[in-house]
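Archive maintenance. Older records in this collection stored only the sequence; we are now back-filling the structure field for every entry so that each record is complete. The fields below show one back-filled record exactly as it appears after the update. Entries are processed alphabetically, and NAD-dependent protein deacetylase is next in the queue.

ARCHIVE ENTRY
Title: NAD-dependent protein deacetylase
Organism field: Denticeps clupeoides
Length field: 377
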Amino acid sequence: MSDAQEEAERQHQDNSPEAEEQSSDSSDELEASGDPEMDLLRNLFSRTLGFSSGEKILDELSLEGVAQYIKSGKCKNIICMVGAGISTSAGIPDFRSPGTGLYANLQKYNLPYPEAIFQIDYFKQHPEPFFALARELYPGQFKPTVCHYFIRMLKDKGLLRRCYSQNIDTLERVAGLATEDLVEAHGTFYTSHCVRFLCRKEYNLDWMKEKIFSDEIPKCDSCSSLVKPDIVFFGENLPARFFTSMKKDFPLCDLLIIMGTSLQVQPFASLVSRVPKSTPRLLINMEKTGESDFVAGLLGFGGGMDFDSDKAYRDVAQLGTCDEGCLALADLLGWKEELQELVKTEHDLIDSKDKKEKAEADKTASGTEGGKTDKTD
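Back-filled structure field:
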């Protein structure tokens, strides 16, 4: 969700299993070629200029073409890649918008620089700013969006292979995705661990929520060290599950749907190039992104998306908000009313649960106050 998390990926991409595997893949290609220099040039140009021997699967490069492909029954393993754009309509602010972004409003925490709030070394010395911010953004204060429930529908219809998310807001889980449906690339608030290497005791979401909203700095019950939500800070590695899952999932992907992400951060952005060459890729975003970039190609990264050239054969861009794009696709699939009803039903359930919890909390608080009055009298 945050640019801070994106920067964490940048710090680790060079040493990641992803980078190592790409280096290994490049070596294998060179060894197999009779002319290593020509093979290298051929590989770089195909990556950066959009050359491909991939089979054309979509009847047309449009949202209608994607919908027809899904309805054909040939599409059985859809992977979704999502970023902060799928949560903005839930009311979760971004980080860098001038004046309104979270970074623009952190002066009250007296940070040496805004990104320090997600710096692991700074956190260990000064955890207060992070937990103050966590109270503002804590999971459970926002409802999933139309986009989140569209992904849930893909799961319910047996079409979702996996959802790869850059977000830490847990809204995919609230919408009904289970742990096995998700790869949370930047970690999650869903679990927390003691930061002490020799301890690492795990804590759940409710435990952390109680600590944060009681203005306590969460400390480990076993060793009294700090306890931190399992989100990726600067100076920390991406979850191992990210690297192990992508190797299994992407070769099987027969449709990649990318929503609400800039595709500028590695290694997440490079996932788009891991699907088979014939696999259609749909981008639902406010602007086109992930297009072929020569420098990124030289480094072995970059999406290599091609929406507009004469050689475009599989990439589709649906520009607009993620919710609008999902509703439009659902309409073409004949799912629109079902999706709208799912959103309404699930939001009503969340509202009902929140109302019940508030009533119980008020009742408990009232009883406590009554007890104090009786003792005084």
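Update note: The beta strands are 78-82, 160-165, 182-184, 187-194, 202-204, 227-231, 255-259, 281-285, 315-319. Confidence is low (pLDDT under 50) at residues 1-34, 46-52.
Entry marked complete.
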